[in-house]
Give the backbone structure.
Amino acid sequence: MTTAVPVPPRKPPRRLNWTAVAKHGVLLFATVLVLLPGYFMIITAFKTQAGYSLNKFDFPHPFFTGNFVTAMRGGRFFLWFGNSIILAVGAVLLSTLVSALAAYAFARMNFAGRNLMLAINTALMVIPPVVMLIPLFLLLTRIDLVSTYPGATLVYAGLLTPFSIYLLTNFFRTVPHEIVESALMDGASTLQILALILLPLSGPALVTLIVVNTLWVWNDLLIALVLLPQDNMRTLMVGITVFGSRYNNDVPVAMAGMLLASLPMILLYLFGQRYFIRGLVAGALKG
Amino acid sequence: MLRTHRLTPFLYLAPALALLLFVFAYPLFAIFDFSLRRIRGATGPFIGPENYRQIFKDDVFREAVSHNAQLLLAVPILVAISLLLAVLLYERARGWQIYRNILFVPYILAVPVVGVVLSNMLQRNGVTNALLRAAGLDFLALDWIGSARRALWTVMGVIIWREMGFGIVLFLARLLSLNEEIQDAAKIDGAGWWQRLLYVTLPQMRGIVEFYTVVSIITMLAWVFSYVYVMTRGGPGNATQIMELYIYNFAFRNSLPGIASAVAVILFVITLALIVPLFRFRARTEMEDLG
């Protein structure tokens, strides 16, 4: 085993070997622990009930795809997928739009109370949604927006907005002053500077923002559970939670359902690991 | 800074402001009001601190609080595991990027997926126990979720399993931004692996470790609803009851939003108290110049 960092010559080689083995041992152990549930989910999804009770950890033989048919029966999965996609797209678009406008003001304009408002905005990022949920539910009930796309979309968009403003403000601040100045000389209006200069330059920040925010809405359970109680409005997360308890005794079908549900995010992650990792780190610290 | 009309900035702020007033400002005021009323439907009569008196008398609430407190034990474990793995990855073990990308996977997976898969694995006759028996460790093949004594520890293990990916990636990002010359200088001076870790690497990580610690504390107190809801619904009995679930049950199952609001107020105040150190540590991390 070697490391990329050059090793100082005075270290005895034998000792280095042992530490390298131990380090790889720890990493391998952690990796196996992380991969084990995924492995179990995949092999079990392709087993028959009988095959599963016979042997829980060998490869599936015969290779059985019927669990997926059972899981998708009645088209519920597609309905849940559809609801999740509609909400994620709607909330992320709305939040990005209003946040870009606000971040532009925070990053590039002077006004009274700016720093205080930014500090409050940052604090809002940490408030857990469960705190706001009761008044939101009662309010949405009163205006007949429970179990509707607009109601849930507004709430999700609002919850995403503090982080979106925070990230975009930090990013807009990094755009060099000269670029904005020269656009002003050419007679660009205030709005044109945002639309034609700042936003086109913010590609990486926008991708980060969209990845993090989509993941947030996609993975949420609590808000969907409360604000979308009607059967045909269930999101994927609420759907699979119900699905998981219904097939509690039919583990292969439950696993097939979980595999189906996690496929989109796993595929996205395989293609865009950089964006996920960079985005979520930036989300915690700064843009 | 752009020279604009005095009111222009507010024009740009208005849509976001409207959204934030609706989703944050109104509810954060309303819970205080609700917590002092007996709510039926949209509102109800003012009853003073009666709801608070009720919850403090309620054994289930006390259990919920003590369970959240127990979950805080996961924080040092999370910090230690994430630090260890991040440091190992930082040393550029062969294939470190592959390890990192794999170790981050649980954090991408949705909690309901994780919850359903792992509860199935941890059932009395699930695959975990089958593996343990095959390894001759029959005495370890326990009822992980069905036993009131163990259920909360099992949930805690699942939380650690999923959340550690974030800690690893966060710490690694910090490590990769450190000045390697200091490391090299320590090596030339003959400092061993442990010495370098304790006296060179860790002191430079202080800000980010503190920051992650506070974030994890907030997580354990107020962001673990989905784990509990999916894996145990608070059971068996009230063995995994937590504050968030208590709010959910009282507001949306028992139709007592006043009681639930009192708990929401308490949770809100706790979070507010934690925001102060969080900001301080974040500022320090930024001064440490994370790339």
User: Anything to note?
Assistant: DSSP finds 14 helices and no strands in chain A. Chain A has two domains: 13-68, 75-284.
